[in-house]
Specification:
Layout: H1 22-32, H2 42-47, E1 51-58, E2 62-65, E3 68-71, H3 78-83, H4 93-104, H5 107-110, E4 114-120, E5 125-128, H6 138-151, E6 153-155, E7 162-167, E8 180-184, H7 194-202, E9 207-212, E10 226-228, H8 237-252
Parallel strand pairs: 1-4, 1-9, 8-9, 8-10
Antiparallel strand pairs: 2-3, 4-5, 5-7, 6-7
Helix pairs in contact: 4-8, 7-8
Length: 255
Amino acid sequence: KREVPAGTRSHVHPVEYKTMSRREADEAEAESYQPPKLPRSLKEKDSSKRLVVVLENAALETVKVGKGFELLNSSDHANALKKSGRDAINMRPDITHQCLLMLLDSPLNKAGLLQVYIHTAKNVLIEVNPQTRIPRVFSRFCGLMVQLLHELSIAAKGSSVKLLKVIKNPVTDHLPTGCLKIGTSYKSERLVRLGEYLPTVALDRPVCVVVGAIAHGECHAPYTDHSIAISAYAMSAAGVCARLTNACEDMWGIH
């Protein structure tokens, strides 16, 4: 062991590590959060450049457990699904959770150029306010979705602004007038590079892209104009959302 000579000071100081609680982390994030700029007039919503994402066939459904309700999922309710003869393979609300985190955290959303809708497998249509901050923890997300599906809306704390709300079908009634509606499927014969394709259809106008919030299989949305594949390989729904937002950010110069 090397000794430090008397009368000299050591320049090595112990490092103190401080861990943040979940509440402290949420408060710190809230302080740094800047709400996105939103289009105000109907003309801006219909004509200004914007990406509209529809998460189609989302597995958001409640189930009664004891005296309360939970969000039905294949992990916690596998036995109940098996007894009812239902296929648990796509009972994956975590996919919707991952997509929402990816989309709402994107610079595209913070720039006010993103709108998200969720269309569930049970034909419930949900509008997501771009200012919504989705819980990071899945269990908290489940509780939020149960509350939404039962109360039909979630308001911001201390405000009347609806962050999440159930709205009337069909989703096409809420899309920008005349916007192109594009489906996504890796089985589509139209394989494109988003960086080359998007400027041809959405350089200065809104565009709607439908992403299947499912684990396996194809998502059929009859209201789409055509379908594209953005990779020759199967991708997760969250991965598709990431590619879409990144491509739009590059196209519209958002950093």
